[in-house]
Design goal:
By secondary structure, this protein is mostly helical. It is built from three helices and no strands. The longest helix has 30 residues, at about 5-30. The protein is elongated and about 85 Å long.
Length: about 110
């Protein structure tokens, strides 16, 4: 094994260890919460970690087989995040309550 191959192997091993550590911390965040938004963001990061894990596997094997799968997962993660954000935006929208007019308000409008 040449020196560049050894460096590649060490860096890929470190990347896999960091991905696994991030996955463990992510599972703790999903479990603890405390809000639904935290859990939704954690699931989005989970999709990114799965993509990173597939990329590391692909780099270890030097096989581009997983690239289309990673692309589909990225698209699904993006659309899921947008859907959750829209749901939370509608759910958390402030209710419009008419405010009483103040004495210094004029009916003329902006000048």
């Amino acid at each position: 094994m040449t020196a560049p191959e050894q460096v590649d192997h060490i860096l890929l091993t470190a990347a896999v260890v960091l991905i696994l550590l991030a996955g463990a911390l992510l599972l703790a965040r999903i479990w603890r919460g405390p809000s639904m938004l935290d859990r939704a963001i954690s699931l989005d990061v989970c999709a990114a970690l799965i993509i990173a894990g597939l990329a590391a596997k692909s780099a270890f094997a030097r096989d581009p087989f997983y690239f289309p799968i990673m692309l589909v997962l990225a698209f699904l993660g993006f659309t899921g995040s947008v859907g959750i954000a829209r749901f939370i935006a509608v759910r958390d929208r402030p209710r419009h309550t008419p405010r009483p007019p103040r004495p210094d308000d004029t009916q003329e409008g902006p000048r």
